[in-house]
């Protein structure tokens, strides 16, 4: 934490100079490189993480170099099977979109126990493992230390991935950090946070606050958007009376945000504040009310918002697992395939991120996949992709 705070206190130019002066095996380099990734900067060289690619076919010009036999460990039965299905379908969509030689893929049910599923996959010849999805199972697998076959876990456990393995997740904390860096990049320092009440949104807003403050900004107020909005007008009036508000961050679901818009519009001091939302900003909003979210920038994993290689413009027409609340998990599965297929490029060429559906994919020095979000803006009730940071 102290290292991160120190790195957060320096500007981009100083951070780049400091990181460039470090060797790949310097204990400080993973921290400095991660700080660069969070700011949208490119680390000068790869992280020393014990990657192994000698068993893979020769890489293609774009870095495509999949393993020979992939085992995918997902909870295909039990309580998490509903979340596993769109991840599985997204993975297969990416797999079949690739026209070059592909690895053999075998799915294993991890619900009865991740240890047994992993051992079975290894015994049957897998040279790369994708999964598990459950956080506790990821922790249990990584607790074994060095693994005979490397893993791309589909969640972030309570232990760092062992050498050669990695974690990929849709962590709320990563989204909050990216949102803080976005508003800072837009010149906003004084931010009003309007937060939802569920655990994911609390984690997002907490990470946003910590990153913003570490980088010299401040949360001027954090107001909760619950069922009773009667107190909101007075809370907003008290907030703007304290001083300027450069930006409003909606760490909330869309229905909560739209319900607050009348009170926000009644405060002239907030009229020019930049508006940023969490990825859930459009959830729970019917088409007629999407226009109330006008001007809000948010990280978008919408499958229909940009062309996806090998996929139709509306993937939801093919399968219900690519629609509604499952759409984000479908995109997550699609990107898990990309990471498995382009792992060498991600590991050894940090200057060449892989553009996934969930964002620009890069590896940090701790074995975690960092997602640089693809930002969209609500315009006329439609999410329009933005260019740049």
Concise overview:
The protein is 35% helix and 16% strand. With 389 residues, it is α/β, with parallel strands linked by helices.
Query: SS-based structural class?
Result: alpha/beta
How much helix is in the residues? 25-40%
Distance between the termini: 26 Å
Strand content: 15-25%
Globally, the shape reads globular
The largest beta-sheet arranges its strands as 2-1-3-4-5
What is the number of helices? Answer: 12
* Overall average pLDDT: 93
Radius of gyration equals 21 Å
Write a concise keyword list for the protein shown above.
389 residues, alpha/beta, five-stranded parallel beta sheet, four-stranded parallel beta sheet, 15 strands, 35% helix, globular
Fold and architecture overview:
- Helix 7 (172-185) packs across helix 8 (199-214).
- Helix 6 links the parallel strand 3 (128-130) and strand 4 (151-153).
- The longest helix is centred in the first third of the chain and has 17 residues, at 81-97.
- The chain is built from 12 helices and 15 strands.
- It is globular, with a radius of gyration of 21 Å.
- The mean pLDDT is 93.
- The strands form 4 sheets. Strands 2-1-3-4-5 form a 5-stranded parallel beta sheet, sandwiched between helices. It has a 4-stranded parallel beta sheet with strand order 7-6-8-9, sandwiched between helices. A 3-stranded antiparallel beta sheet has the order 10-14-15, with no helix packed on it.
- It is of the alpha/beta class.
- The chain has helices at 2-8, 12-20, 29-38, 81-97, 114-123, 135-142, 172-185, 199-214, 232-242, 254-265, 327-341, 343-348, and strands at residues 69-74, 104-109, 128-130, 151-153, 166-167, 190-195, 218-224, 247-251, 274-277, 297-299, 354-355, 360-363, 369-372, 375-379, 382-385.
